[in-house]
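Hypothesis: this fold can be encoded by more than one sequence.
Test: take the structure tokens below, design a sequence, compare later.
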């Protein structure tokens, strides 16, 4: 059991060399991490609620069934490779989380069009994504961390959907991608809180 525990934990051991190790005892930094872990969990719950709505309203529930349509839509996952790479750097991870939140804030406009009856929830999600992005930006500035801006990797204006079905599938994948993004961001913040 001890060996198994060590093997499962081993990929994260490399992260102890991250430049934030000296901040691990900083109470303000820990408070920031814990508050934003809760905030991220809340946002994940709101995304899950919207996914549930899309599933029931349009019978779009399984990603595997829609992969061929996805290829035509040009919807990409915001990158977070800096948050789980072997060369983890806190500045790069925070920058990618911040940039990804900004991208999803914009792409939620397509979900807003798709679900006009749930405007309040979608707008709350947009506001929360913007606030979490601002929290991370502010914390980076407070810690004196370099802010890195990553190229937009195909993120630009929202894709134009050629049909109502494509719009529905597009909304489905925006939410699915956002949920995966939030799960990775949550794991990265949780890891930093444990350093």
């Amino acid at each position: 059991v001890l060996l198994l525990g060590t093997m499962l934990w081993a990929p994260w051991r490399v992260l102890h060399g991250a430049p934030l190790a000296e901040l691990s005892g900083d109470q303000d930094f820990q408070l920031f991490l814990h508050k934003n872990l809760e905030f991220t969990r809340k946002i994940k719950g709101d995304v899950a609620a919207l996914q549930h709505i899309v599933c029931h309203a349009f019978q779009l529930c399984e990603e595997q069934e829609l992969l061929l349509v996805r290829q035509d839509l040009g919807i990409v996952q915001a990158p977070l490779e800096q948050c789980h790479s072997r060369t983890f750097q806190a500045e790069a991870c925070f920058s990618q989380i911040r940039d990804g939140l900004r991208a999803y804030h914009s792409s939620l406009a397509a979900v807003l069009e798709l679900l006009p009856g749930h405007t309040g929830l979608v707008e709350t999600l947009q506001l929360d994504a913007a606030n979490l992005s601002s929290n991370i930006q502010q914390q980076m500035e407070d810690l004196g961390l370099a802010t890195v801006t990553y190229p937009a990797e195909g993120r630009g204006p929202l894709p134009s959907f050629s049909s109502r079905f494509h719009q529905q599938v597009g909304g489905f994948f925006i939410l699915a991608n956002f949920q995966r993004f939030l799960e990775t961001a949550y794991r990265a913040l949780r890891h930093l809180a444990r350093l």
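Residues 27-67+89-146+158-193 form a domain with the Growth Hormone; Chain: A; fold (CATH 1.20.1250.10). The longest helix spans residues 27-58.
Hypothesis status: open.
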